[in-house]
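REQUEST ID: PR-0412
SUBMITTED BY: lab tech R.K.
PRIORITY: routine
TASK: structure prediction, single protein chain
INPUT:
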Amino acid sequence: MKTVLTERARCQGEGLKYFKRTWMLYLMLLLPTAFFLAFRYVPMTNIIIAFKDYNIFRGVWSSPWAQSSPTGGETNVFKWFIQAFTNKDFYIVLRNTIMLNVLDLVLGFPMPIIIAILLNEVPSKMYKKFTQTVIYLPHFLSWIIISGIAVQLFAPSSGIVNIALGKIGIPPIDFLMEKKLWVGTYVGLGIWKEMGWGTIIYLAAITGINPEIYEAAEVDGAGRWGKIWHVTLPGIRATIVILLIMNLGRILGIEFDRPYTLANTTVMDVADVISTFVYRVGIRSNQFSYSAAIGLFQSVVCVFFLIAANTIARKSGERGVW
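STATUS: complete
OUTPUT:
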């Protein structure tokens, strides 16, 4: 018993010494912690409106629980979820959201990896920095600006792309009005905008690889492709897995401005996604409880995909996100 008390006192003494040495770090942590609590976690309590007949004048907590009918009746807290799942338009936007996000993931996710590896093999530092800057700049443009650029580029009669195609005898192509071409344009613009950001992350990961490993591979007879396959890719595998997990966690979390600014009435069958549906049917029609229910469903599915992807990664021997 005396030994246990002595060990406990020793641990407490070490903990006190550690806190005296690092208390300023914990003090600096108070402000961001307070920010996240006040502006991230406390507002989450308002998700309760997904289970209520929310009245903007009565507030979140004073609004009654969802009733089975507008005039009252039996309480049914899942009323808005049932309304969403029985709406055929909801399944159309769900399909579109999954389709566009999967295409973004399959076609867009490998692109920064490929560019980062290619840039790493370029001997000229000046060319490498110039290229990296050029491909990174679109990340800072809003989708309002990019949609305007897309209209100027792909307009059937006055667009630069169709003018160039006309010079070689190809008739005008309506990239933004035909459904299949619109999907390709949507995905292509997304890749162009964000591939520079991902490239920087992978280049930083490649920089962290020990140069001696490349030298050892060269001594063993590995060429340029062999060093990429056996050294570079395994060296950035952990970064690839973490970013892949985070992308899978956003499989239903589609942004609003990108599809909203690029869409038009002729392509709504493939362009209408959860975020635009919530805005049009929920918020613009003052059905806040309905939009909150759809948003909650979307978040739960994203969390499920995130946990599943992280679990698979850890069982495969990778570190995962947590």
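NOTES: The two ends are 37 Å apart (CA to CA).
REVIEWED BY: pending
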